[in-house]
Amino acid sequence: MKRKFVTNLALLLFLNLLIKPIYAFGIDVGVQNAVGASKYGSYFILLNFSLIFQILLDLGIENFSRREIARHSHLLNRYFSTVLPLKIILGIIYFTVCSLVGYFMGWQAEEYKLLLVLLFNQFLASFILYFRANLGGMHMFRADSIISVVDRFVVVVICGFLLLDPVTRHVFRIEWLVYSQTAAYLIGAALAFSMVFSKTEPVRFMFDLRYYRSLLRRSLPYAMLILLMAAYLRIDSVLLGKMLVNGKEQAGIYAQSFRIIEILSNYGYLFTLILLPVFSKMIKQGESIENLTRLSFMLLMVPAITITFGCLAYRSDIIDVLYNEHVQHSARVFGILIFSFLGMCITYIFGTLLTANGSLFQLNTMALIAVSINLTLNVVLIRKYGVIGAAIANMATQLFTSLYQIILVKRIFRLKTDFRLLIRLAVFISLVAAGSVLISNLPVFWIYSLGLYFLMAALLSMALGLIKLKSIAGLLAPDQ
């Protein structure tokens, strides 16, 4: 099981490392530099608004399906034939609620039209995620990996041409990015549907109200968790836009740093796509999850710690090479937000394990507390410190949730504390933090010293036994 996890994770990481950085740092950054912080900030606020309510499109069906199909693969046909009509109904509800709330938010006509297209895009994206949940539940991780990058690849092709062409580059509009996303989601949804449909028996789609009530009753805890997590992750940009006079520009500055955190956290999220069905199956079969938890934690956290202190030491250089505006302000925000990345990565391991175990009450309690903390900190700190305050609120919330989940996992699964491993990890963090400061001050071009820093961290992780190449090679080796 561990070998299957590592090999499929490697493919997923490879495809995403190939496409998503090009999208984030080539297309998304290129678009913001082309249209300016204020215009992009307006789009960023609307996008995050649409993402906060995205759970209305799903109500926890995606995570529920990924978990249940992993345990009972014979239920695929039943779920598929009845859930698709339900998702169309949920799409209508989502569109109605968001368009009404958006209207009362007081956005201008141009912004409101853009919001409507973004809502349609999220509707399409929810279908892609649902189809991917079915593929992941059936342990079709290669197909899931391909679908995970198709939409971004299409946007890279379309917007890449528009940003590179001299005729369109200087007149680029933010609407072009949104319309290209619509085309990409349509293609991705069609491809994902065909992959799942090919694995089902002849399907007769049907509307079953009794089944929907049963399904939603079971998936509602997942829905509540996702809604609360989306709220404390996304609400800061919306509050910036409403609480500050120059809110759109401040949201654009925040987006410059948050984009980097989001692309980094996407790789942690990839762990959950494989870990959730694998953990679910192991728990059902009564297998010990301790070794896989430790392995996945080290595979994710050692690079995450390395990246965090590297980004902290080189924050000004990184922001300067990416953006044309508000470089120093963004660098200060980035230096705070990068610690949110650590909290997210811990959540991707321990939160996934708790979800696979069905510990939704405990997770929802945690998320409700996190929303309260985040809203309180944002309201207080944004008024006083602006975008810096939003970054502090995000960091504090993420670190709180990660610590909460570690304690939950230890209590529920009664995992033994490996003090030797913790000591080695503490030594690694201390040396990496010190090394990042020393190496970043070397009198060489920053790219070269950053490369030297990553080499130092890699050698240090192996010397301390945190990453063992022999163990990974053994997992990748064919079964005898």
Task: Give descriptors for this structure.
disordered C terminus; mainly alpha; 480 residues; single chain; 0% strand; 18 helices
Description:
The protein contains 18 helices and no strands. The protein has helices spanning 2-35, 37-52, 61-71, 76-104, 109-137, 141-164, 166-169, 174-197, 209-243, 247-284, 290-313, 315-322, 327-356, 360-385, 387-413, 419-440, 446-463, 469-476. The chain is an all-alpha fold and 480 residues long. The protein has one domain (2-416). The longest helix is centred in the middle third of the chain and has 38 residues, at 247-284. 85% of the residues lie in helices and 0% in strands. The radius of gyration is 22 Å and the shape is globular.
Query: Rg, please?
Result: 22 Å
Oligomer: single chain
Separate helix tally: 18
Q: Given the helix and strand composition, which structural class is it? A: mainly alpha
